[in-house]
C-alpha cells in the first residue's frame, strides 16, 4: 500500500451527518414476560411491512458546540447494521464517504485527503458523526426505531386512542428511558424516546411526520430530531426521497483505499 498508516487518539473532524406524552390517564400497566414481548414488538415497529434495505436522500442540519453544519447526504443501509453515508457539497460532489457495520468503519475525507478506519465502537463513530452510537443503533434511528437501553425493569402504560408509554430502568435505576408510541392504521410507531441519567437528559429523540413509503411499504418518519444536551449536539434530518428494498450492489458497502491517500487508524484507548 502506498498510503502511509498511522494511529491517532485525538478527535477527527465531524462529518456533519448522522449522523408522547400519553394522552389522558394511563388505563393499563403491564409487568412481566408478556409486557417484555409487547415492548420488543412495539419497539421493532410491529404491524409494519418488513424490509431489508433502504436508499434515501436527506438534508441534515447539525449543531455541535455552537458550530452549525448543513448539507445533503445520500444514505444506503441494510438492516440490521450496515450503512453508507455520502456527504455532498453544494455542487453535489462528495465531501466525505462513510461505510460502517457493527465491526468496522471506513471513512474517506475527500476535502482533507485522508482515509480513516477502525472498529465501529460508539466512541469511534462519535468522532466522525458526533453521535456516540453503534451503526445498528443509527440504522434503527434512520428507520424509525429508537435504540433501547439495557434494562432490568420495565412497565407499559396504555391510554385511549392507541397511545402507549414504555418505561425502561437500568440495573440500579440510575438510567431511565421512556418511549412514547402510537398504534394506528400504519402499525405501532415510536414518536419520541428520552433517556435520563438521574435527572439529567442524555438524549431526546423525536420521529415526526410518518408517511407510508409506496403502496405496501412501511411508515417511516420524514423528519428525525436528536438532541444530546451534554454534548451540545442537535441534529435534524429530513428525507427528500426514500426507496425501500432497491437493488443494491454489495460493493456500495466497501470503501477501497486510494493510492497516495494517508490511512489513519482511529482507536478509543484513551478517554475523550
Q: In summary, what is this structure?
A:
The chain is mostly beta strands and 272 residues long. It has three helices and 16 strands.
Gross geometry: globular
Q: What is the number of helices?
A: 3
Strand-pairing-aware structural class: mainly beta
- Rounded mean pLDDT is 79
Show unreliable segments. 1-37
Give helix and strand order, one letter per element, not per position.
Answer: EEHEEEEEEHHEEEEEEEE
| Assembly classification | single chain
- What portion of residues belong to β-strands? over 45%
- Major β-sheet, in short? 16 strands, mixed
The rounded Rg comes to 19 Å
Fraction of helical residues: under 10%
| Straight-line distance between termini | 30 Å
Task: Supply database-style keywords.
272 residues, mainly beta, 16-stranded mixed sheet, 3 helices, 10% helix, 48% strand, globular, disordered N terminus
Overview of the structural elements:
The chain has 272 residues and is mostly beta strands. 10% of the residues lie in helices and 48% in strands. It is built from 3 helices and 16 strands. Strands 1-16-8-7-6-5-4-3-15-14-13-12-11-10-9-2 form a 16-stranded mixed beta sheet. A hairpin with a 5-residue loop joins strand 5 and strand 6 (94-100). The radius of gyration is 19 Å and the shape is globular. It starts with a strand and ends in a 6-residue tail after the last strand.
